[in-house]
Specification:
About 45% of the residues lie in helices and about 25% in strands. It is of the alpha/beta class. It has a single domain, classed as P-loop containing nucleotide triphosphate hydrolases (Rossmann fold), CATH 3.40.50.300. It binds adenosine-5'-triphosphate. The site of adenosine-5'-triphosphate has 13 residues, from helix 1. It is a peripheral membrane protein. Belongs to the ABC transporter superfamily.
């Protein structure tokens, strides 16, 4: 069963008239992870933000975005706000931008949970504490009393993953969640994403430049170039028998994880590289 079906998505800039996404159709199978790969500017983020309906107002979009059969592209902003967080959860590249810098993270977490659940403050605390411990964040109470700038990028990403665990969304969209992190934190955050999938069996869209990570985490891969999907297939098929020249080029140039990352991950953790 498909949890998400995107049909004929078009996104264009009303100011310049430039078409950013020409005519994109793809689906996400329930419980699976779809990676979107492609060079910078190929339209990966705009596609994901179109699903969340979070592109800037100067970008217009048409097409059908069916979440469990419901066309969310037709929803009002108010209705859409209810879907964000509870049904669709986005984890961004820079954890710092996801949090309000003027309040401690606990306030942000409680406000987010209060939008979707009628839990008491104590219930929220218990659930968040459990989820934070499960992503290896020690001293959750202390962390919740800190401002975002007092926490590292890796910690903020893990807090976002913990929040997703509590929200239990239908789909998690992760847009380069490890790019801004140092090598050790990248490793920890990737591990937490893998665990999240194992534990919740959630459906996921994962954007990454790092094809080593994609190979570890994704079931299917979709390749984008200049706003178009040029190839899509099972992860192993994309890596071993890509049809499109551009995909072959990406695989040959981008599969190599940074040497440091490889060392930290340990060769044994990687699926054999063909
Ligand atoms: N708000 C905007 N207004 C106009 N054009 C935009 C806007 N946001 C993105 N674009 C353009 O849309 C195209 C796709 O951008 P997008 O950010 O989706 O690429 P990407 O594949 O995610 O790249 P990266 O890997 O660098 O994040 C680019 O040409 C970009 O300049």
């Amino acid at each position: 069963m498909n949890i998400l079906e995107v049909k004929n998505l078009k996104v264009w800039d009303v100011n310049s008239g430039k078409e950013i996404i020409q005519d994109s159709s793809f689906h996400l199978k329930s419980g699976s992870c779809l990676a979107i790969v492609g060079e910078s500017g190929s339209g990966k983020s705009v596609t994901c933000r179109a699903i969340m309906r979070l592109n800037r107002s100067s970008l217009h979009q048409t097409g059908n975005i069916l979440l469990k059969g419901e066309n969310i592209n037709l929803l009002s902003e108010k209705e859409m706000r209810k879907k964000r967080g509870r049904n669709l959860c986005m984890i961004l590249q820079n954890g710092m931008s996801a949090f309000d810098p003027s309040c401690v993270v606990g306030v942000h977490l409680r406000e987010t949970l209060a939008e979707h659940f009628n839990w008491s403050k104590n219930e929220m605390e218990v659930k968040m504490t459990g989820a934070m411990e499960s992503v290896m964040l020690k001293n959750p109470t202390e962390i919740m009393n800190k401002y975002p700038h007092q926490l590292s990028g890796g910690m903020l990403q893990r807090i976002m993953i913990a929040l997703a665990i509590v929200l239990e969304p239908d789909i998690i969209i992760a847009d380069e969640p490890t790019t801004a992190l140092d090598t050790i934190s990248q490793f920890e955050v990737v591990e937490q994403f893998i665990k999240l999938r194992e534990r919740m069996g959630c459906s996921m869209i994962f954007i990454s430049h790092d094809l080593g990570v994609v190979r570890k985490i994704a079931d299917d891969v979709m390749v984008m170039k200049d706003g178009e999907i040029i190839e899509r297939g099972k992860t192993e098929a994309i890596f071993s028998e890509a049809q499109h020249e551009y995909t072959k080029y990406l695989v040959s140039t981008r599969l190599a994880l940074s040497d440091n990352f490889k060392k930290v991950m340990g060769e044994g953790l990687l699926v054999a590289e063909g």
